[in-house]
Structures are given as structure tokens and as C-alpha cells.
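Whiteboard transcription, Tuesday session. T.W. wrote the C-alpha cells on the left side:
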């Protein structure tokens, strides 16, 4: 099944499988290196995260950045 928004093809099943494979293969230890720096910056500088509602990456991830405001957008993906 393909997912369409208007005339634009967003994901084919093989593409979705490849993206999910990439997410699952990511080493969470790599992210731990930059998280403290990111949190330091987002607590010092007013930061807004625009986050498209996405079936693969939940919105709690956007809130984990320690930002002052998160706007969740419909029909956008992350």
C-alpha cells in the first residue's frame, strides 16, 4: 500500500521498511553523547519544536528535547 497526501507519494511499503530498519539499527549510545549539549542549549535559548504527527516517531520525542514549546502538526510527518 502506498500512502498519498494529495498528489504526492510519501511512502511505499519498501521505503517504510527501510526507514524503520534504519531507526531500529541506530545505536542509542550515539545519541547519549549529544543529548546533554542539546539540553543545555534548549534550556538557555527559547526553542520551539515543530513536530509533524508521525506513526514511526511518537510526539513524546519532541517533548524530550527540553524545549519551551512543542507544536504538533497534522498531516506532516516528522
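and on the right, the sequence the group agreed on:
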Amino acid at each position: 500500500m502506498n500512502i498519498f497526501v494529495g498528489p504526492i507519494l510519501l511512502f511505499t511499503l519498501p521505503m517504510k521498511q527501510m526507514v524503520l530498519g534504519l531507526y531500529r539499527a541506530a545505536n542509542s549510545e550515539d545519541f547519549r553523547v549529544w543529548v546533554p549539549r542539546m539540553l543545555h542549549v534548549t534550556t538557555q535559548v527559547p526553542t520551539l519544536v515543530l513536530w509533524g504527527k508521525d506513526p514511526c516517531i511518537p510526539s513524546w520525542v519532541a517533548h524530550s528535547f527540553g524545549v519551551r514549546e512543542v507544536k504538533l502538526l497534522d498531516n506532516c510527518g516528522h
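Someone added at the bottom: The CA atoms of residues 4 and 10 lie 6 Å apart.
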